[in-house]
Every structure is written in C-alpha cells, then in structure tokens.
Amino acid sequence: MKTPHASFDSDNPTGYISKKCPECMEYMSLKVDVCPSCKLPVGKINKNGMASRKTDWKAYSTAIAAWIFFFLYIWWAFIREP
Predict the structure, then answer these.
(1) Cα–Cα distances in Å, from 77 out to 17, 29, 35, 63, 80?
(2) How many domains in the chain?
(3) Listed residue (62, 2, 58) closest to 30, CA to CA
(4) Looking at the domain assignment, is residue 10 inside a domain?
(5) What is the pLDDT of residues 12-34, one digit of tens each?
(6) pTM of the predicted structure, to 2 decimals
(7) 2 inside domain
C-alpha cells in the first residue's frame, strides 16, 4: 500500500508501509520473515508491494539428488556391461 504522506525511509525506498503475502494475500509488516497467517517464509518486497517467495533450496537439492540416483540406477540395472 503506497501512501504519499509516509516519511522517506532509507531502508525502504519503495515507500510501502506493509507487504502482501504471495500465498494468502494477507498484509504484514515489512520486517516479518514468515507470514503470520499461512506460515509461508517470505522475502523482501518487490516493486508492486508483494513479498517475494523464498527459494526452497533443500527441496531443490533433494529433487536433484533423487534424479541422479534414478539415472545411476537405470545405468547400473540396464545399460552397463556385466
């Protein structure tokens, strides 16, 4: 929510006084790292006033490891020369 009457803050050059959760659309303070409504971890505010989603690196790493294991198993079970 942009307001022309808010004082300029060097930590918040966008001028917004709150950010909006990308999952449940709930407004929250700019300093909050987790949405109080849906408990989704949120990041910094973007130019439209929405909080950005934090990247879930643990899930990406697990998925990549599972694909590597799957391809190694396919190679071991069907492709390699005995």
Answers:
(1) 58, 54, 46, 21, 7
(2) 1
(3) 2
(4) no
(5) 666 788 899 988 999 999 888 99
(6) 0.56
(7) no
Tell me which residue range forms the domain holding 50: 19-79
CA distance 50 to 19: 5
Spell out where 8-67 has E strands: 19-20, 27-28, 42-45, 51-53
Residue 61 lies in a domain: yes
Q: What ranges make up the beta strands (E) of the chain?
A: 19-20, 27-28, 42-45, 51-53
Q: What angle do CA 36, 63, 42 make, to 5 degrees?
A: 20
Tokens 């909006």, located at residue? 20
Q: Are 52 and 22 in contact (CB under 8 A)?
A: yes
